[in-house]
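cron nightly-structures :: item 1 of 1
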Amino acid sequence: MDAPRARADLHVDASAEVALELDSNLARVESTGSEPQTTALATRLGSRLELGAAWPSGHRLVLVGTGHLRIAPDSEVQSEDLAQTTVDAQWTRPARQGAVRAGLRLGGRDVTSLHGADGDRTYRSGSLDLVLVLFGDSSRVAVSVGPRGFQYKASGALSWVGAGTSARGDFPLWRSEDEARSLELVATVGVEQRAYYGKANSNRCLPGAEIDESCFLLTPRRRGDRMHRASVSAVYSGAVVASIEGQLTVMDSNSFGQSWQSLRARAAVTAPVAGLFASVTGTLQAERYPEGLLVKQALETYESLDADNRSSLELRLARSLSGCVELELRGAIWRDLFRESSYQRFVTSAGLVWSR
């Protein structure tokens, strides 16, 4: 008789949210630009499902899927009625008596307009990585490498294929005797090479001339970018959770107007306050454009539909209503603090979050 197969330990985590938000600049436009800023109400819906399995042999599989919708009844901002879905699957197995784990990771993201048109913030991306995790006494280093792809739905010229590699190290610096408090250092570094379907631009204006759109001349060569990113952060965990992070991003492009550098500093604190859980996050972001002008069509991808890649101050208050339901209040303000810009945006929302 065959021996029974070893069963995997399974876990399931799920959450869902519904919220009503007021956005002072839903379309994300400059206040002095040709497009008017639109203040609008929007409904936000979200869900997340995580499935995990661990076998006695040491093999592990984690599947994570998310879905988010944002719908505004105002017909003037229908381009911001968006649906975002993400998938992430990772399988690893142990090696060298558990000191190393190796495996594969597959990721994908899709942002689609609910009205069928391909707007400025609709795109699709995907990646497939080989993953190697090295464990020390109490630290670990994870390295990944693999192909990437990005499809910008509004313009095929801004779609690209490429490859990237990244590394992350988690290093504990201190832990109290009762292990209730700790301090950890996290460092990341990565590089990504992109080959675009569109052509590169050159500068047709004379040296020293003021840069405007007439300076851009389309060339026969394909556009290519290389992105470098590094960050370091410190995280304290105890009665409160606090973190500080610095991040440097450098984009080198052979297309005129598409090279830039970004420096971001972020601090966050989460603590219980009068029966609530309060989280405050402050971000300072400064950019530098060596050629004096960034092409308007340069696309930034966002981790969430209401995020914004600018300096910001964000507040979140949560109160438990039952064992698995929370009332959540959010407020956030965004500004361009380190360059001449009229951009401003304020968002406030109230909603319910269910999790198990």
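cron nightly-structures :: done
The two ends are 40 Å apart (CA to CA).
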